[in-house]
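> forwarded from #structure-qc
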């Protein structure tokens, strides 16, 4: 975007700045030839600092705000459209880009972690197979099990004592 600066004006201030009536400003707002911002129920007209303005008698020079390139086949982009694009870039795109960058960093971190976990898994599998081979070579002999009492129905519990 150019180095132009933008200012917010109330409808009355914009009318004075542009040298037109408040009704004309409202008509331009309805036709979307002026950029507006709404804040707390107040409508502000956004104008570039270089909007024509007659400083001798504090009235605006009556020229249309919308400027069009003189060549017929070129696309005409108004200053308000440029401002809207800048606002969209700053308020919508920049947070999305930052979020995307954070997600890319997190993905890379998770991929590194997955790589280390798969290495650890392979080491554990190797150790398990070694233990299984060792167990197969020398099976564990059962030791003398403690003597078990014969099983009786529950109601005969007191008869054996």
């Amino acid at each position: 975007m150019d180095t132009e600066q933008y200012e917010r004006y109330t409808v009355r201030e914009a009318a004075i700045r542009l040298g037109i009536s408040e009704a004309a400003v409202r008509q331009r707002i309805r036709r979307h030839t002026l950029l507006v911002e709404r804040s707390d129920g107040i409508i502000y007209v956004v104008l570039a600092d270089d909007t024509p303005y007659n400083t001798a008698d504090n009235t605006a020079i009556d020229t249309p705000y919308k400027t069009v390139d003189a060549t017929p086949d070129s696309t005409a982009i108004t200053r308000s459209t440029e401002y809207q694009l800048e606002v969209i870039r700053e308020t919508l795109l920049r947070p999305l880009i930052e979020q995307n960058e954070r997600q890319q960093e997190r993905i890379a971190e998770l991929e590194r972690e997955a790589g280390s976990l798969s290495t650890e898994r392979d080491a554990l599998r190797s150790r398990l197979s070694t233990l299984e081979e060792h167990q197969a070579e020398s099976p564990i002999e059962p030791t003398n099990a403690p003597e078990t009492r014969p099983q009786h129905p529950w109601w005969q519990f007191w008869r054996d004592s």
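QC bot note: The chain has one domain: 1-136. DSSP finds three helices and three strands in the chain.
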